[in-house]
Amino acid sequence: MSIDMEQFHQTFFEESFEGLDIMENELLNLDVGNADNESINTIFRSAHSIKGGSGTFGFTAIAEFTHVAETLLDEMRDGTRQITQEAVDILLKSVDVMRDMLNVYKDGGEMNENNNIAVQKELENLLGNEGSSTSDEDSNASENKTASDGWHISFHPHVEMLRTGNDPVRMMYALADLGEIEVIADISELPAFVDLNPEDSHLSWKITLTGDINKDDIVEVFDWVEDECDLEIVPRANKTERIADTQETTISDPSIPAATKETTEKKTATKKSGGETASIRVGIDKVDEIINLVGELVITQAMLGQAGGDMSTDKEYNETRMEKLLEGLAQLERNTREIQESVMRIRMLPISFVFSRVPRLVHDLSSKLNKKVDLVTLGEGTELDKTVMEKIGDPMVHLVRNALDHGIETPEQRIAAGKSETGTLTLNAYHKGGNIVIELSDDGAGINKERVLNKARANGLVGANEELSDDAINDLIFHPGLSTAEALSDVSGRGVGMDVVRKNIKSLGGSVRVNSTEGEGAIFTIQLPLTLAILDGQLVKVGTETFVVPLVSIIESIQVKSENLSGIAGKADLYKLRNEYIPVIRADNIFNMPNDDSQLENRLMVVVEGDGHKAGIIVDDLLAQQQVVIKSLETNYQRVDGISGATILGDGTVALILDITGMIDIYKEKGVPDPTTPVTPPEGNNSDIADEAA
Amino acid sequence: MASILAVDDSASMRQMVTFTLKGAGYDVTEAKDGIEALQIAKSNSYNLVITDVNMPNMDGITLTKELRALPAYKFTPILTLTTESSADKKMAGKQAGATGWIVKPFNPDQLLATVKKVLG
Amino acid sequence: MTKAASELNSIIGSELDSDADQYLTFILGSEEYGVDILRVQEIKGWDSVTPIPNTPEYIKGVINLRGTIVPIVDLRQRFNMPEIEYGPITVVIVLKIECADRDRIMGIVVDGVSDVYDVPPEEMKAAPDFGNVVDTEFVRGLATVDEKMIIILDIDHLMSGNEMQETDILSA
Description:
The complex is a heterotrimer of chains A (694), B (120) and C (172). Chain A is an alpha+beta fold and 694 residues long. Chain A has 19 helices and 26 strands. In chain A, the strands form seven sheets. Chain A has a six-stranded mixed β-sheet. In chain A, strands 10-12-13-15-14 form a five-stranded mixed β-sheet. In chain A, strands 24-16-17-26-25 form a five-stranded mixed β-sheet. Chain B has one domain (3-119): 3-Layer(aba) Sandwich (Rossmann fold), CATH 3.40.50.2300. In chain B, α1 crosses α5.
């Protein structure tokens, strides 16, 4: 039978990547002078598992490479080799190699042959030999004659052979499969019946096998009991060759399975990967909770079913029925809400999965940059949606790189500045409102405001005489094209800029901002929604259509007072809200809806904020606030600017969900100047502001 | 139908072994380390135990010794999974009382042939 | 929805003879058009639609189809035909469209559905140049049934024109 091994591949990859993470973690935490043996054992076992699995599933390259690393680890765990920093570093490199190899097998692509061979050489050098063999079998070729007639076998089990679960009868059957068999039992050694211990073996046999039989096949039958018996295999023809049970015997070993033919060039992907894994590990407690809640739901449903039913003409009867129905409905609402919360939590995983990438990164980078950095992580148990987590990894890595590259100074610089020579990078995660907040803070040099401002002026982003607040200057680092490193360092200036970080975080529905104090350090704060599927929204009516405004974007809702309105060059309206001016956005303006030229006086305006910019949206009515399920427009249609998705209302109709940041962008693109720079009221001459527009 | 206890800390190996053996009509129970295996073995009965050697919490060699100490498992075939064919690794299992071994990596057919050899 | 349409719905659901090429035909103005019945998911009566801003006029908006958001295209407007009032026999044909990247569900508004016909491949004729009535890129061929001419549409082409190109908001 042939079994398709591919179905096990995914599990193998998952557990192997996990194993590599464990290896890496333990290696990083290993105290070289005083290593914890349990730790070494854990590292060994991980490597051992990966070797075994990759051999079984045909990933030969990994099996061979890992074997060398495993040999090294084996020596370390049984004490024959001292644990040195050098060995740890090489093993860390091996982890990288194994990861790369796994990825190639998983997703396709080419092996980085040169690198793999180089690291393997380093391992081998350390081991002191030119590569270990996977097997140290002697092959006793000379005894391999095929006797044309058959063999005489003398089989005498030692007394205790049965205790290992080996059964002579079984062996006889196996021999019988090889050829014509004749067996004579020798009972001469049987003790008296009263003294007979059924667990002991006192029998022996003389077996004659006739046929064209390979001696190896016979030896294989007795393979396991080599040490527990006296065995003689003699060709029926003539010579006696004694096989002592202490000698090495040929054992035809079933080694690497035949199904492992593969080229070392291109590997076909065993699974197409889009960066997101298709499975998720869920704590069984979460599953149990849902099962309970569904159980309650079933009860509620039965209750409703009973309370419903025929209404009669008896008024009182109907009233009691109605009461029961309403009760049931209230319970139903509770049940649904609880189930919903419970199910959402299934997709949540602790952020430690993302944080776990950082120690290795800090270790490698700090040695590369010759800086001393301590990493502190807090709130690793804070949970967030799996998809969000998978996509936040890269931006976080970039922020860490940035902190180490530009933030934290060299030990000499730090001492000169009166700081300790070791800098500290702190990662902190916690829940706030409907969001998860991730803070990345360092005690480095902070953002050099002057340099940023100069660069921005040089790029024409900021006017020569324009004054900006400290926060506004610091925020400029997220602008594309602003990389202030003198030389684009290999580490963080590689064309993956802060602007990409912000864009990626934005696409997840989140935001990132920075607070910095020169000389003291900087804090990057990332805010992400806890879930991508549900939104707290404010329903609003605009004309005949209902829209949903994300509650998190709403600052307040007010009634428009004409005295606070001002126009700019006849094109747009500004509203004075306390001490700032915000643009007034009208739906017809943004969405090319039927023109509504009516006065704004006393109209309702929802003041919103998107990505640091404020605006006021004119609506005709404020409806209910409710949780809406976000449905994608893109599944069957496409992305629409200013709209982040759609939802289905209680009456079955579709309502569009506004993308506040997107709407503000559309508004700006229509050529209206951005009045959200710090406040100078446009007294009299409005054209100043119009001129400064990009 | 014969029942088999398969012990390995690697989920993919367990899956492969279970799938292969179940497909041939055997009853298979899985355990991820020696401690779990011992617990399961005590409250059920198996015709064959296949165990990996390197596992956390309790390794295969210790498991073999512990099983042999149980009256019900005195003569039950126990096979260890070893990743090399070096003599001393095989011997460790035998010294602990194992019936024999299967060398990793093995393919499903080899596994089935060996199990058949043991269970008949 | 008319009785005819609901009868047609049951044909769509039922076992189809895989040898015959069956087409669902519908009316637009004075012309009769056909689409591969295997692509027809269902037929609905016309109901209100939520308009989407900044889209071509022929995209009326989206509807809720049992929990999925489905865009609706007015074929008359798509073909630059004069608009008419939607009436009681106006229907929406919900289609499975095969696009480059994946399959989508979209609906088209037509004046009314006609019937389901078998058109063996050899009976399908190539379409001549129509001039500017219908862009012939969308026409798979012509068929004659009961002395009527049916214009067989290539809906994949028709529905996944440039305007329908999708940009993935979450792509790396």
